[in-house]
Design brief:
The complex is a heterodimer of chains A (264) and B (157). Chain A has 264 residues and is an alpha+beta fold. Chain A folds into 2 domains: 33 residues, no CATH class; 224 residues, Alpha-Beta Plaits, CATH 3.30.70.20. Chain A is built from 8 helices and 11 strands. In chain A, the strands form 4 sheets. In chain A, strands 9-1-11-10 form a 4-stranded mixed β-sheet, with helices on one face. Chain A has a 3-stranded antiparallel β-sheet with strand order 3-2-4, with no helix packed on it. The chains are: A alpha+beta (264), B mainly alpha (157). Chains A and B meet through α2, α3, β2, β4 and β5 of A and α1, α2 and α7 of B.
């Protein structure tokens, strides 16, 4: 051992520039090999990940029946509790539209309808009024994913757009990019973007999202678009559905029944 | 000859810089980034493993079979257990923390007559007015649940 070290020291003393460069080159090449291996190996291991849920076999769709919604706001409460949403922020909310005889459109959503609605006296006669639940539309072509500079928001193969709260830098581009106002950043809390996930943690276990569970009139429905017999697939096939802001081309997977032209 | 040694030195510097860049990059980018796409693959499992707060009414049936059966046959069958009783999480671990909601405010969330509220749900203009009407008929009831059992809400007078 001692002899080997001595030899090495002797070699280093005698090393000329040529030998030095040769050795450095070898070291760099070695580094590259290690780096490449480090990149590839975990992926090989991960692709064989065995979980019961196969996201290739599902594609979720949501139907909101605005003709049924009674504006009780139980969906908003359930969502907040299920997902631990801070005060003043909403992953889902309910809007009330009141259209007067002068074609004036009045929209309100007190506390996102967390505590329901109260009657408002208006001077002009209200000729048309209805409730519209809103939530993330889980667009097939999501603007928010496109603008994220760090890859913190992404679309899963079963069609859900998620936010990685550990990777998000809170720049807020996605909040501005969303045409539906479905995203928010809690600047006093986690300081990262957040939005409705259609309760992805429930979907993968075969449960309905909390809002769907809480709706007492069945105005919210979730279903698998890959299953032609699901309630949502049947509605999309047989009923007249629309999406919010179709002109933008985001191709939402939240569909609305009884959507009025005034709803934005 | 001297040109050659310069070239080699330059190439070496570039190679070293590239390797340093790649090593720094591998530290900066999370290990699972890019596993499934342009995002951190581990986040998928984190999302899937978020704790459940609500369960489903079928789960409540395991212990509360009698109530479940009665509720299933009532007009309130579309209103899941956790809507009125609170979510399962508060029940989990401490069975006494879950109680029945008997406040009139809870009833009025759905049954208050409102502009825009579809008539498919039975509604009253005002709770006080409704009670006053009953007062005249001499029942003397004070709260909703005295006449309307939430598990079978059709009024029993």
């Amino acid at each position: 051992m001692r002899q080997a070290v001595d030899e090495m020291q002797q070699k280093m003393k005698n090393m000329n520039r040529r030998d030095f460069l040769k050795t450095s080159g070898k070291l760099c090449a070695g580094g590259l090999v290690i780096y490449t291996a480090e990149l590839l190996l975990p992926r090989l291991g991960r692709s064989a990940r065995g979980t019961a849920y196969d996201w290739e076999k599902h594609l979720y769709g949501f139907v909101v029946d605005t003709t049924l919604c009674i504006g009780c706001g139980r969906c908003v409460k359930a969502c907040k509790e299920e997902n631990g949403i801070p005060d003043g922020f909403y992953r889902t909310w309910v809007e009330r539209y009141r259209i007067t005889e002068h074609e004036q459109v009045l929209v309100d959503s007190p506390k996102g309808a967390l505590e329901g609605f109260t009657e408002i006296e208006s001077q002009a006669q209200v000729v048309k009024s209805f409730f519209v639940p809103k939530l993330c539309n889980q667009c097939s072509q999501p603007n928010c994913v496109q603008v994220c500079p760090v890859g913190a928001t992404y679309k899963t193969k079963d069609g859900i757009v998620l936010v990685d709260d550990q990777h998000c830098v809170g720049c807020g581009y996605c909040v501005l990019a969303c045409p539906y106002g479905a995203r928010y950043i809690d600047h006093d809390g986690k300081r990262v973007a957040d939005k409705c996930t259609w309760c992805y943690h429930r979907l993968v276990k075969g449960l309905s999202p909390a809002c769907v569970l809480a709706c007492p009139v069945g105005a919210r429905k979730i279903g698998d678009l890959r299953d032609p017999a699901s309630e949502v697939s049947t509605i999309l096939r047989e009923k007249r559905v629309n999406v919010l802001k179709p002109e933008i081309g985001n191709e939402p997977r939240a569909y609305y029944l009884g959507l009025d032209k005034e709803v934005r | 000859m001297s040109y050659r040694s310069h070239t080699i030195r330059l190439v070496m510097i570039i190679v070293v810089l590239v390797v340093v860049f790649m090593l720094v990059r591998s530290f900066m980018i999370p290990a699972s980034f890019g596993t499934y796409g342009h995002y951190r693959g581990d986040n998928l499992e984190e999302q899937m493993n978020m704790p459940l707060v609500h369960l489903e009414s079928a789960f409540c049936r395991e212990c509360h079979q009698e109530q479940h059966t009665g509720w299933q046959g009532s007009e309130h069958r579309a209103v899941n257990c956790e809507v009125c009783h609170g979510h399962w999480e508060i029940h989990n671990g401490n069975l006494k923390t879950m109680t029945a909601v008997k406040s009139d405010d809870a009833c009025m969330l759905c049954h208050q007559a409102l502009t825009g509220r579809p008539e498919s749900v039975s509604q009253i203009k005002s709770r006080d007015l409704h009670l006053a009407e009953l007062e005249e008929s001499g029942t003397g009831k004070q709260t909703c649940v005295e006449c309307h059992d939430p598990h079978a809400p059709h009024a029993t007078l």
